[in-house]
């Protein structure tokens, strides 16, 4: 599924502006800001870079505490560790596989009552393209001044409906929302990321930090430690062409999800999450296989021998060596998801016939 990728990349090459200067970066930023209902967007070299800068500007530093989902790709936690802040891992809830925001809410309220430490920041991940339950986190922000940073790396185009009936884009609720345009994401620029925010000063500081904190007066003067985190014009050209087709891409993902649900209906497994208040993007269509079937690694090998690539979901962060001693709330749900979860082919170019091949192979392998 292609749009103007060749055209825009060709224009970028012809202009000679392929690095961090050129028109496509701003066009890409403006387009994403508009799509998410945000006032500002700042292109970065990766989604992890966007998270790192956003967390730093939200106040993450040594002595501060950041709560993050236990079930997520490790970059979510690594971005916190780069700042020197402490981590609190929060288990998933079974409906959406996202951070159990009600569990965290109860923990914070109780700790605040007892005068104990509470998080300064919550980094909430919209896992696998499904929005997290944001209402309890918004209340934590309003009651205790806790900053919210949204890791929406996998969820570009996803929306959720508030109790008031408002339809809200992921990434637009927190102090900042962070997106990834890695090669496997909903929209790709090959490599890249983006920060969205309504805070003009936050956006200005982010632009400053991603450019090595270079003084605006020119020359080689730098007022703090910065980073080489700029998005190139060449990557932005590719990303813009993809972003212009976001609605069509998300529709394709929904069709793939619908076909999988129909084809897998006869098998005893849990389908990819979808809460009634959420419009996910089904970045990777993932299911939970039933207890009693073959070991997941054996299933993955069996699918591969049938010519179908599948993959296991991430191990919970508390089981990963860098975070094995990190304080956590719960953990049983994230372990259950890892023990039974598998992602199926989810490319936007996947046909219904292709999905039939996937499902037939899965039926053979899991018994």
Describe the protein in words:
- With 367 residues, the protein is an alpha/beta fold.
- It is built from twelve helices and 14 strands.
- The chain has an eight-stranded mixed beta sheet, with helices on both faces. A three-stranded antiparallel beta sheet has the order 7-6-10, with no helix packed on it.
- Helix 6 (135-144) links the parallel strand 4 and strand 5 (147-151).
- Helix 3 packs across helix 7 (200-210) and helix 9 (246-263) packs across helix 12.
- It is globular and about 65 Å long.
- The mean pLDDT is 95.
Short structural description:
With 367 residues, the chain is an alpha/beta fold. Helices cover 39% and strands 14% of the residues. The chain is built from twelve helices and 14 strands.
Largest sheet: 8 strands, mixed
Task: Give the averaged pLDDT, no decimals.
Answer: 95
Helix-strand string: HHEHEHEHEHEEEEEHHHEEHEEHEH
Approximately how much beta-strand content do the residues carry?
A: 5-15%
How many helices in DSSP terms? Answer: 12
| Helix-strand makeup class | alpha/beta
């Amino acid at each position: 599924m292609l749009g103007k990728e060749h055209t825009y990349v060709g224009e970028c090459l012809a202009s000679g502006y392929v690095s961090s200067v050129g028109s496509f970066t701003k066009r890409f930023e403006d387009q994403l800001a508009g799509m998410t209902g945000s006032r500002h967007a700042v292109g970065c070299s990766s989604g992890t870079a966007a998270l790192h800068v956003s967390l730093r500007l939200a106040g993450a530093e040594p002595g501060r505490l950041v709560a993050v989902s236990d079930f997520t790709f490790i970059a979510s936690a690594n971005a916190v560790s780069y700042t020197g802040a402490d981590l609190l891992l929060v288990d998933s809830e079974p409906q959406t596989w996202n951070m159990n925001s009600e569990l965290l809410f109860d923990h914070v309220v109780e700790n605040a009552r007892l005068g104990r430490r509470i998080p300064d920041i919550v980094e909430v991940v919209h896992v696998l393209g499904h929005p997290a339950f944001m209402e309890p986190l918004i209340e934590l922000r309003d009651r205790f001044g806790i900053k919210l940073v949204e890791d929406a790396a996998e969820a570009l185009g996803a929306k959720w409906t508030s109790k008031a009936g408002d339809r809200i884009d992921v990434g637009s609720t927190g102090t900042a929302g962070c997106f990834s345009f890695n090669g496997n994401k909903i929209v790709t620029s090959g490599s890249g990321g983006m920060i969205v925010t309504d805070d003009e000063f936050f956006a200005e500081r982010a632009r400053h930090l991603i450019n090595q904190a270079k003084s605006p007066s020119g020359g080689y003067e730098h007022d703090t430690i910065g980073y080489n985190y700029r998005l190139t014009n060449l990557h932005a050209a590719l990303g813009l062409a993809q972003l212009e087709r976001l609605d069509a891409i998300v529709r394709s993902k929904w069709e793939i999800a619908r076909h999988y649900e129909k084809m897998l209906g006869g098998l005893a497994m849990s389908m990819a999450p979808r809460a009634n208040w959420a419009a996910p993007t089904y970045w990777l269509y993932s299911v939970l296989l039933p207890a009693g079937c073959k070991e997941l690694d054996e299933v993955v090998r069996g699918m591969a021998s049938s010519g179908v690539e599948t993959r296991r979901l991430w191990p919970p962060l508390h089981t990963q060596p860098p975070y094995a001693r990190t304080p956590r709330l719960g953990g049983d749900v994230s372990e259950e998801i890892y023990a039974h979860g598998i992602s199926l082919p989810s490319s936007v170019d996947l046909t219904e016939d292709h999905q039939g091949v996937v499902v037939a192979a899965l039926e053979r392998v899991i018994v």
